[in-house]
Amino acid sequence: MHVVPSVVAAFAASLVEFIEALTIVLAVGSVRGWRGAIGGAAAALGLLLVLAAMLGPALTRIPLRAVHLGIGTLLLLFGMRWLRKAILRSAGVIPLHDEAAAYARQTAALRAAGPAPGGWDPLAVATAFKITMVEGIEVVFIVIAIGAGGAGLLVPASFGAAAALGVVVLLGLALHRPVAAIPENMLKFGVGVLLCAFGTFWAGEGMGLVWPGDEFSLGVLVAGYFAVALVTARVCRPYRPALDA
Amino acid sequence: MKVLGAVWTEALRLFLDDGRFAGAVLGWLALCWIVLPRLGLPWGVAAILLFAGLAGILAEGALRSARGGS
Q1: A105 CB-near residues (< 8 Å, 6+ apart)
Q2: Residue A163 burial by CB count (10 A; 0-12/13-18/19+): exposed, middle or buried?
Q3: d(Cα A60, Cα A49) in Å, to the nearest integer?
Q4: What ipTM, to 2 d.p.?
Q5: Residue A245 maps to a domain
Q6: Domains in chain A: how many in total?
Q7: Whole-number Å distance between alpha carbons of B42 and B35
Q8: Which element (helix H / strand E) includes A14?
Q9: Distance CA B64, CA B70 (A)
């Protein structure tokens, strides 16, 4: 029952995180050279794989109810923060995430650091490593949080994240510029709703609460958070900053 | 080491960038965990209360941020 929402949530969440990482890695590669950009990103991906391989199986040794409560709590802290930001973006209170602008900012900052030395460029490696680690940690957390919710969910969640990585790598190779065509802000809104729904469901399970309709209540939670987020965005709209004339 | 330190700080911020918001979520979860199973509420009501509180915290947190409260 949870397999499809798990794959969808892991795929969509990973897609937005990998797109953000790709923007910076592309900026690093185009300004400081591809050797450092790809080397830094690859080192971070390797470290993230080790982290996921260590954490995932370790969770299976903890009683499921405790895992549900702990993961549900973390997922709610993470997901509600994420959804709140998406609501504020949707209401126009904070600016929409713009990959083209992020790319321009990063390339300007990297150019200002002076010419790249020959061979391995420490700035390129460090920048690509840091952004891949920061965005990748979010992916690892989401995959483990979604995967730890039930027996056999870790593989579908990992599959969703791996598919997102594949899509983003292919887009990066094909386009050689930031992926601005994907409706990232809308995706983030949807992912926030899914993370909150999963977090609430598992926290409730961990507390020993009974969900009406059992696993089907996950769909009701998704609809509930979606409705609350839409109404809140509408209520927040009057607080948009005024545009300069 | 500097890069790893920055990564660690960013990772912490994923969960706790607004203390009041995070505190409200944790407080509501703790209250639900301790109190709800002992109340003997009718079937499903406890789960609905859990969701309603979290939805309220989300709406209040967003509105507070929009008004410039955090």
Answers
A1: none
A2: middle
A3: 18
A4: 0.88
A5: no
A6: 1
A7: 14
A8: helix A3-32
A9: 7
User: Are A36 and A124 in contact, with CB atoms under 8 Å apart?
Assistant: yes
What residue type is A109 in one-letter code? Answer: A
What percentage of chain B's residues is helix, strand, coil (to nearest 5)? 80, 0, 20
Min Cα distance A235 → chain B (Å) is 8
User: Cβ(B58)–Cβ(A80) under 8 Å?
Assistant: yes
Cβ contact (<8 Å) for B51 and A210? no
Interface check B30 vs A, CB under 8 A:
no
Distance from C-alpha of A240 to C-alpha of B7, rounded to nearest angstrom: 32
Nearest residue in chain A measured CA to CA from B62: A84
Q: Which residues of A touch B22 (CB under 8 A)?
A: 77, 81
State how far residue A138 is from chain B, nearest Cα, in angstroms: 8
Is residue A242 in some structural domain? no
Indicate whether A58 pLDDT > 90.
no
Q: Residue A16 in contact with residue A188, Cβ under 8 Å?
A: yes
B6–A74 CB contact, under 8 Å: no
Model confidence pLDDT, tens digit, residues B4-57:
777 777 777 777 778 899 999 999 999 999 998 888 888 789 999 999 999 999
- CA atoms of A190 and A48, how far apart (whole Å): 25
Q: Which one has a higher pLDDT value, B27 or A105?
A: B27
Give the C-alpha separation, A214 to A175, whole Å: 45
Q: Is residue A122 situated within a structural domain? A: yes
Measured between CA atoms, the residue of chain A closest to residue B46 is A209
Q: Is residue A214 domain-resident?
A: yes
Put simply, the answer to whether A211 touches B47 (Cβ < 8 Å) is: yes
pLDDT reported for residue A199: 93
What residue numbers bound the domain in which A86 lies?
3-237
Q: Which amino acid is residue B30, in one-letter code?
A: A
DSSP-assigned letter for residue A176:
S
In degrees and rounded to multiples of 5, residue A97 shows phi and psi of -70, 125
